[in-house]
Amino acid sequence: MSTKVLVLGAGGAIAQHVIGFLQENKDIDLTLFARDTQQLAFLGSMSKIISGDVLNREELTNAINGQDIVYANLAGDVDKMAKVISETMTQQGVKRLLFVTCLGVYDEVAGKFGEWNNRMIGSELERYGKATRIIEKSGLDYTVVRPSWLTDKDETDYETTQKGEPFIGTEVARKAVGAYIADVILHPEKDVKASVGVNKPGVYGDKPAFY
Is the pTM of this model over 0.85? Predict the structure, then answer.
């Protein structure tokens, strides 16, 4: 029996890589949820596509109903979205959630890189931090994903850190984050009730090289 996976924010760049890794896997049944579904048209009939707003409870409930895994890769009012998603999943009896936030939500980025990161992300960090705490208190089988500063490089190298460990890697490719997320979807027992930093191995410093 195939695993039913709902992708919230399916039009996003990381999500597109995740979809690319999973769409031909016969054991995965993808449902793609996005405000603007035009950019998903190239997928043809390979996946179910839903146009909707995460903050619309009715649309979200209809999408979550019957799924096995929810993967959320969202921007904007992520704290409000985290609340609605976790409440709706609990109501629908869906337990497994992957939710992307960002580095720095625990003040886990050390030294000069941490100071630079906090300055650059600014008030967004508070919102992502709130979303992270909502997910962690939700009672769901969550994995919070905290990527480093993102590049569009065509590479899949990544290393991970767990909550409580310092985050030192200054960058990571969106494709590599997608590879990590796809791996967790294929092995849903991995990193349950964990908050995982994802970065490129060996690239450390005071800020990303592209700044």
Answer: yes
